[in-house]
Protein 1
Amino acid sequence: MDSVFAKQFRLRTMTSWDANSFEDALGKKVQWGIVHGKQFSGAKEAAQQLVSIVKGKVINMKAMSEDVRKKLGTEEEPFEGDVPIEKVEECILELVSKDKGNNDKFCYIFDSWEHKDADSFFCAMSQEFGLPNFLIHTDASKATIADRYKKANEVDDIGEEAQQELTDAATKDETNQKELEARFEQSEILKKMHTVTTDTMEGCNKALKNIFSAKVVLVNHEKRLDVDIVCSNLAIKYNFLYISVYQLIRQHIQERTDMGKALLACKKPKALNDSVRYADGAEDEFEEQEYSAAHFDLKMVL
């Protein structure tokens, strides 16, 4: 028999049962995402900017691979050949497990991978952690990439060999994006893929904040209209959190929290107009008129 939560979750999603989404709703799923792009497109810089936005931790698989290489060999006989990808994956799992043991919850950001291709990487990480929470594909103009290459290599011109290297990197990036897009489409999470222009890192940071910052919808209505159920259903359908402001104000004041005391200190009762006042004789069961946000300092309420 399903638990009450399971039944509510199935109703909330309006879709067939999905264990991955259920784990996510319970807060058990590991949050992770992908940031990638062509050479000098700013993928690593974008990943670092995401750290503060999503409380992230960047996974450096190349560094992990080199650590594994050292452990597999000795100073007298260094390990030769390709490092088994399974060993690198074990390092990632150990890192995540250690964070969980310390009650540290991060969103793990991959800005590169050591697997043979993007498809193999996606499958391996999805098998361990569930589907990714996002993919950021960084893109920059040819002029920007050329300038960054010259600066990084301290040269005035890009030679034929270097130009071919950049072209090959761009082709590889296109292949990676197509493979990942196919997986995201198959997993029905295409809406989690975003392309961010990185010609300036300031613009990139702004775009990332727009993608990951909370979206807020303010609802105002006449008291003759009962919108609680409508708002609740919309929140369920679009995975929003429905917050009734006056009920929060009421709760803080009645429980005498620090916020409640601050709200009472700034309260200036106002005469409510017809659009927000209950009609004469109408029941105000939850004292909505008394705890309306209109009576309190707007900045305090926000």
Protein 2
Amino acid sequence: MRICVIGATGWIGGSVMREALSRGMAVTAVGHNPGRLAALEGVETAVADALDTGRLAGVIQGHDAVVCAVTDRSTDDRSLIPNAARSVLAACEQAGVSRLVFCGGGGSLEVSPGVRALDQPGFPPQYRAEALAQADALDVFRSADTDVEWTYASPPPHHLEPGEKRGGYHARVGDTPVVDDDGESRLTSGDFAVAILYAITEHVSVGGRFTAAYLDV
């Protein structure tokens, strides 16, 4: 399988890239920083901005699937992430790539019916703008009239942590987070990458969202 990882120099995209390589997949790593891309080994690389639909379409053409792992915490501009979602979706349509997994946010998961994690008083204020933008991106996909088989992958609402895969996570389709007996929802970036690639190879949650977390810590 040949996959394209947009945002491969970030910590989530990098985890997906390394997990894909460990499975013998051919990977094209896409990013906007040539220096960081040049440091990657074992992959083809391409410089492209997630908002440059035409350039992306040329890069992703011929791939079996695309994983998009882009975000931005440097601004309160809520338009960047949903615009990236529109651009990548359009690029897939132009390139004839039928499978797309968008690595989104967990803040829009519902901790109780109709109540999102990002709307609760304890949600970290420094992440709220990003969480709202990621929620907007989910709306982009849900309202899209497209033949692309998209999936929106949500990490836990609070505790996605850098780390290697350890297994034992539970995945769930829908808008409710996976929590353990103590009400905690945690996952490492390594296992999030495993869940994302599983979604691609097994066609999980096509046209919808899934999330994952450990049932024990």
Protein 3
Amino acid sequence: MKKTTRLRELIKAREILISPGAYDCLSAKLIEHMGFKSLSTTGAGISESFLGLPDFGIMGLNDNLTVSKNIAQAVNVPVMADADTGYGNAVNVHYTVRAFEQAGLAGINLEDQVFPKRCGHIKGKEIIATKEMTTKIKAAAAARKDPDFIINARTDAAAIAGIDEAIKRAKAYIDAGADMVFPDAVLSEKDIEKFVKKVSAPVSINMGLAIRQRPTTPLVSFKCLEEMGVARVTFPRMTMSAALTGMKKALETVLKAIKEEKIIERPDLVLSFENMTDMLGYSEMQELEKQIAAL
């Protein structure tokens, strides 16, 4: 089965789809190894890890595409990419869709922020006119060669103009050809429920696992979101934030060992060599080596 078809089935299923965010191939393979059925790329995470720059609209199409393509090829589960604003007008969106589809992604997010965009959970966001965004969505839907390739229309209107405006825009984006809608930075659980009830397409919600002290979108249980009718929930920044925390703890241990002139022995802070090689498919590489040697 094509990854695009598989993702479409998972989104339409009654069970909510939990899709953690990957910022590189290693995080993507870990997500797959842990048994998740799909994953998402994180535009913020790619910008921050690949370029060392915040999610402020600096990362371009080629940088994003390079990492997203590698992620998609590293795993067997479907991957949805974060394509930001589509990197320009509707013509740019056409080529953006073609590029991500050809790279093996199963779908993309397209957002209605003014370019250069910024992280959806910080102040200073601006949104483009609804008509401009619907033109982008129409261009995206027309550009895809595989009809199962998912167009996920993200709106940042909830935190700027209110939930009613976000709902109005979502309906327009669905009419323009979006397969799924993603209201970012929804300010209350009540607003999430209202949004899901008012729109006719599958809804994706972004959770933060309290990465911020006061998360913009409230933390809601998977069960509650599923009962509301949410089709998909993502955790874009979780893996990178967790990785940084783990690296920080390990490096603090090194600094302490240097100061105290002690040997470092903290297996609790690192993944074992055996677990690492198992996750990366080392045994499969050895088997391939044997097969090729026997030719």
Protein 4
Amino acid sequence: MSDYSVPMQAFWLDWASNNPSSSSWDWSRDAAQVAMLQLAAARCTERGDCRLELFSNSPVWWMLLNHNPSGSASGLSDNLQPWNQANHSWYMTAVAAHARDVWGVDFSSIELFNEPAAEWWRSDGTQEGCHFDRGTQAAVLATLPAALQHFGLNGSLRVAASDESYVDMALATWQALGPDAQAVIDQVRE
């Protein structure tokens, strides 16, 4: 049986502290996937023709309304707790900074959502995923610049959004995000 469907464990364990040096964080988790990431980054550097993107299928389980990283019950509603919107940006940015500073991995871009408008991310699913209404995407994106600034990644880490499943979904999301969220985004994904 293959082990590739097992999701990467979260490094931020609980909401007690957002300080990545605190006991609320465990950077030793999932060492095998970190080693694979380092090998991929080394190969990318050797080839010189590729870029690495840090992306999220779902926020960390404890940030979710139902604590299930496969999605909401219906797949039609946001699963990210509104009070954790900034935490999702913070977590992803902290991982990018740690990867750069400790693992020697430089990501070229960061993407907070994967197929966010999709309605198939349900709690009875077998893969990580999270539906984000377009207004929620805009609200989360609004929290990203402060996190990038805090970790010294503004200007060096491009922001990608929103990695939709289809071109028409990507266009509808882009148009619905509005100018403030659009100003945060450096590249559009589909």
